[in-house]
Write a structure and sequence with these properties.
Elements: H1 19-27, E1 38-39, E2 42-43, H2 49-59, E3 60-63, H3 75-86, H4 91-104, H5 120-132, E4 138-141, H6 150-166
Parallel strand pairs: 3-4
Antiparallel strand pairs: 1-2
Helix pairs in contact: 3-4, 3-5, 4-5, 5-6
């Protein structure tokens, strides 16, 4: 599989067909039993755990199927967290960046709320903002619309399309 820079690609298939496994291979969460995985010129399959953590932090944003927002942190704190872990922006700029990303996904008014206070669509958009926090070169989403009802899907899909155009 080859995807060029700037492409917006969806991988579709039935349950169990390997979509999540593909994401895990690309991100280095899983290692291939044979073959190689390159992202840009980085041999992901050859990186050790420490190198993978640094590479992921600088290059990859992941949106998980069930959001994985930390329930005891506010939405803004969830978005700041990757910047803290990866030290990608100066400390005094991180909160402002989080609010800017929440604006991009259309939920800045939710910044001080806990994830449990948000709808599923709002949680998904918060997870997208978090995935974009470190300005990754690659954004991967594992079934980003699967757990949303039709109305929430109608909120999130245009958001993804707009972000692709902007970024």
């Amino acid at each position: 599989m080859q995807v060029d820079e700037g492409e917006f690609v969806a991988v579709v298939g039935k349950s169990g067909s390997g979509k999540s496994t593909l994401i895990n291979m690309i991100t280095g969460i899983d290692n291939p039993t044979s073959g190689e995985v390159f992202v840009a010129s980085t041999p992901v399959h050859a990186l050790d755990q420490e190198q993978l953590a640094v590479w992921r932090g600088k290059n990859v944003g992941i949106v998980f199927q069930f959001f994985q927002l930390l329930p005891t942190l506010t939405v803004a704190e969830n978005v700041v967290l990757p910047m803290d872990f990866c030290n990608t922006f100066p400390v005094n700029e991180r909160h402002k960046r989080a609010i800017s990303l929440l604006e991009k996904v259309g939920i800045p008014e939710q910044a001080d709320k806990l994830p449990s206070d948000l709808s599923g669509g709002q949680q998904q958009r918060a997870a997208i903002a978090r995935a974009l926090a470190t300005s990754p070169r690659l954004l991967l989403m594992d079934e980003p619309l699967a757990s949303l009802d039709a109305a929430r899907k109608a909120e999130v899909l245009p958001c993804l399309e707009r972000l692709h155009q902007e970024l």
